[in-house]
Every structure is written in structure tokens, then in C-alpha cells.
Amino acid sequence: MKQVTHVKAELILVFVTILAGFGWIFSKEALAGLPPLFFMGVRFIIAGFVLFLAGQKYFRGLDWQDVKQASLVGMVMGITMMFWVTGLDQGSNLGVGAFITSLGVVLVPVVARFMFGARPALSIWIALPIAVLGLGFLALNNGLDFEFAHVYFLGAALGSALQLNLLSRFSMRMHALVLTAIQLSVAGCLLLFLSLLTETLPHSISIEVAGWFLASTLIASSLRFLLQTYGMSLTPVSHAAVIMNLEPVWTAIFAVFWFSESMGAGQVIGCLLIFIAMIVSRWPQIRAIFKPKRSYSL
Lesser CB count within 10 Å: N end or C end of the chain? Predict the structure, then answer.
């Protein structure tokens, strides 16, 4: 029965990565008629409210210290998303952007080393030069003329690494649904505040753009995080972390069919190297998944 539960959870998490990949498509379409920070701010506030409605019972008896820590993580998430959506708005290749952003997985132990003095595993030091080489192929695909959007995606990767480190350091005693709702709400408020300071809001929004906005909010945010929270509650975190690496793969595939994107040889090599770096960085978890369990007989 336990094995069946793990398979169910992993299938749910694979579906979550598919939703995340579609989220890049929905967001890119919505940005055709909405300012980037305004789009993400309203999207996250609505998504956070939907999660609150879905899990009201888990919000009872919250500790104020836990709420403050979750809010701090939400602020970091907001800054991370500011980099991400700016890169998405200015970038011309979603697949490349997704692979660069996914470097956050590799950078988590590196950030922990400099911020908290933690010692990364050997697999991280092996993965880092592979990732850097992959970035080099992406940046120099067209000679020295590279997209500045890649810098924003790299900033998002660093931000996500910091966010994950803070989550691992804080001992917050709250349900994952509550934590996610607080993060989304705080990040949304920060982004909306920055939008009101820096962006000009459109006088009207087309039905098409509104549809993409709702899809990105309700499907790629609310439904995705609901399923992700449920799936991760049924399987070890190490399994979930490995499965979540599929997001940039789906994004690249969907971008090819949706926007007719194509990658040059250098970009393909760069994305492949970054994906290899992600796998190498997760090698201890991957080995633990496939390591045969010892059976003892009397």
C-alpha cells in the first residue's frame, strides 16, 4: 500500500511540473497586455486567497513568530519573482529561461555555504562547473551578443536558492498550505506595491489577456500549489526534489509547440549541461531512490 501511495504522489508531482511548464506559457501570453509586476502581484494575491479558502482550518492557532518568518520568506519570493517576470517579459526563448532559472537547485548549497557556513556535498562542487559551462554556451550562442533577460533569470535562480535556504533554516510549525498562502500573499503585496510606484496600468484589458491571467492564477498557481502540497505530503522530499527538475524540460517542449521557438546548437548544449548539473547536484537523492533495500530473513 505504501508503494502505491508513493507512485500516486510521484504521478501527481509530475503533473505539477506539467502545470508549472504551462505556467510559463500562460504568463507570457498574459504579459502581452499587462505590466509585469502588476500581473505577478495580482496573480499571487488571488492565488494566496484561494489557498486560504481551501485550507481555512489550518490557519487556526498560528504562532506570530512563525508568521513573521513566513512573511520574510514571502518578501524574498517577491524579489525573486520580480527578476523572473522581468526576464520572462524581455526574453525571447522560454526554454532557455526555464533552464537558467532551474539553476536555483544547484545554487541552494552554495548559498548555504556563504550564508550559514554549511558544507556542500561533493556532488555540488562537481555540478557547479558543469552549470557554469552550460551558462557559457547559452550566453555565447550568438557570439558576444547575449540577451540581458538571462541575467534576470539568473537573479531569479539566486533568489529561489536563498528562499529555499531560509525555509530550511526556519523551524516554522505550520501546514505547508498555510506557508505557501502566506508566501504568495506577501510576495503579491510587495510586487503590487512596486508596480504602483513604477508601472503605468492599462486602461482596459482584452478578454483574451484576462483569460490567460485567470489560467496563470487559478491553474498554474492555485491548483499547482494545492497539488504540490498534497503530493509532497505523500512522498519523501528527496523524491519530490528530483521530480521537480522536470519543469524546465516541459517548458522547453511547450514553447516549441506554442511559440514555435527553436534553439541553436549552443543553446541546446547549454540547456543539456544545466540539466546534467541539476541531476548531478541531486545525485545522493537519486542514488537513495534507486538503491535496493536490504531484506533480512530469520
Answer: C
32-64 residues labelled b (16+ CB within 10 A) or e (exposed): ebbbbbbbbbbbbbbbbebbbebbeebeeebee
Which residues lie closer than 8 Å to 222 by C-beta, 6 or more apart? 46, 47, 50, 51, 54
Distance of CA 243 to the CA centre of its chain: 13
In 3-state terms, the chain is what percent helix, strand and coil (to 5)? 80, 0, 20
The 10s digit of each residue's pLDDT in 168-196 is: 777 667 888 888 899 999 999 999 999 99
DSSP per position, 72-137: HHHHHHHHHHHHHHHHHHH-S-HHHHHHHHTTHHHHHHHHHHHHH-----HHHHHHHHHHHHHHHH
Q: Which of 194, 218, 212 is nearest to 83 (CA)?
A: 194
Strand locations in 128-168 (E): none
For residue 174, what is the DSSP state? S
Q: Tell me the helices (H) and strands (E) count for the chain, helix number first.
A: 14, 0
| 105 in Cβ contact with 128 (< 8 Å) | no
Contacts of 182 (CB under 8 A, 6+ apart): 48, 67, 70, 71, 74
From residue 62, alpha-carbon distances to 15, 132, 179, 180, 190 in Å are 31, 42, 11, 14, 22
Q: Which three cell numbers stand for residue 25?
A: 506559457
Share of the chain above pLDDT 70, in %: 89
Model confidence at 258: pLDDT above 60: yes
Q: Cα 215 to the chain's mean position, in Å?
A: 17
Q: What letter does residue 144 receive in the DSSP assignment?
A: T
C-alpha 235/C-alpha 243 separation (Å) is 11
Summarised one tens digit per residue, pLDDT across range 72-82 is 999 999 999 99
Tell me the Ramachandran region of residue 263: left when phi exceeds 0, alpha when psi lies from -120 to 50, beta otherwise: beta
